Amino acid sequence: MTDITTPLDMEFVHSQFPGLRDDWVFFDNAGGSQTVKGAVDRITEFLFERNVQIGGSYAISQAAAEALMKGREAGRTLVNAERPEEIVFGPSTTVLLQTLAAAMRSQFHPGDEIIVTMADHESNIGPWDRLREFGVVVKFWPLDRESYRLRLSDLEPLMTERTKLVCVTHASNILGKVNPVAQIAEFVHARGAKICVDAVAYAPHRLIDVRAWDVDYYVFSLYKAYGPHAAMMYGKYELLRELDGLYHYFYGKDKVPGKLEPGNPSYELAYSTDGIVEYLAALGECQGVTGDRRAKVEAAYAAITRHEDRLTERLLSWLNARNDVRVIGETVNEDSTRVPTIAFKFDGVDSGAVARAMDAYGIAIRFGDFHSRRLVEDLGEDGDNGVLRVSMVHYNTVEQVDRLTAALSEIVSKVAA
């Protein structure tokens, strides 16, 4: 039986990330995480042993096709999709959402409505906003300023019989709050619309279950979830079939997901997904879990959540104890519904000056709006070079958080003097 209090084996975790070296502390993981060794091994294996085009009758081409399918199978396991064909690969979440918008365009008619959120990354706003050119009406679901939450009571009056799609973030890359996508999906579906979820800021931290949540489209970047610079999109198979193809004319509606991967995906990067899932499964085994890969991945994310909750609490406690800084978003991690992405601002201090000063301490953080410009501007936090953001993942430690806060204390006292 699994001990639910078993901590992560940090020695094992750190051994799987060769980039964790030279005493640097990486607290800019929401911009891009370190890459797990197994993902790099898959890339190298493909390029050295399988590097040909798929579709041939000869053995190496068959091996290349097998690698691509292993990548899709790993993606299926990671998000709990029904079938591997529901996994679409692309270079980034930004590109995949542009791909989806282009492939859905013929489904919209003048006067049809799309709802986006003010709390989202621009990747899940801009592609939909550009459909105004074709007569689509785009509405903004506002963020409740007091609670920093997206409320269904604010969404309800925006929805009409012409609403076709609601686009929402699973977790804001500024606020860090996990949105209840299953509840939102149920609400949206009951009113005859579909839902598209940007999960970039969620996927590195929590278990994904697209079937349990009944989401229609779900997109995130692998390079922020321990893989190389690539991304994946889940879509319900029947919905993917109905999308317009973006490849050659002879790629018919049933050629899923190939019709949405013009020029074919990067085979080696798709294959690397298998290395990410292998790592997560190994973490699950460290928790004493046996069985299939999905069960091990579930155990891994449970352990990751427990560890990241400690990191979140450590940093929030330090910030909350000061009277010269404000957290952008909720100041507590209620029921583990806050990922360890924490944005804040010191009173009267330029955020850029603090982040740049941190370089001398060997700690990587960042400042600005993180491509959630509409949110930062809507909150009135765009002055003084925007917000500071510390984005942690499970290979970070409490000791590193303490190193960060000690450095922040020194830096702010000097900058504010």
Automatic annotation (TrEMBL):
InterPro entries: Aminotrans_V_dom, Cys_dSase-rel, PyrdxlP-dep_Trfase, PyrdxlP-dep_Trfase_major, PyrdxlP-dep_Trfase_small. Keywords: Pyridoxal phosphate. Residues 25-404 form the Aminotransferase class V domain. This is Cysteine desulfurase family protein, VC1184 subfamily. Pfam families: Aminotran_5. The lineage of its organism: Bacteria, Pseudomonadati, Pseudomonadota, Alphaproteobacteria, Rhodobacterales. It comes from the Bacteria.
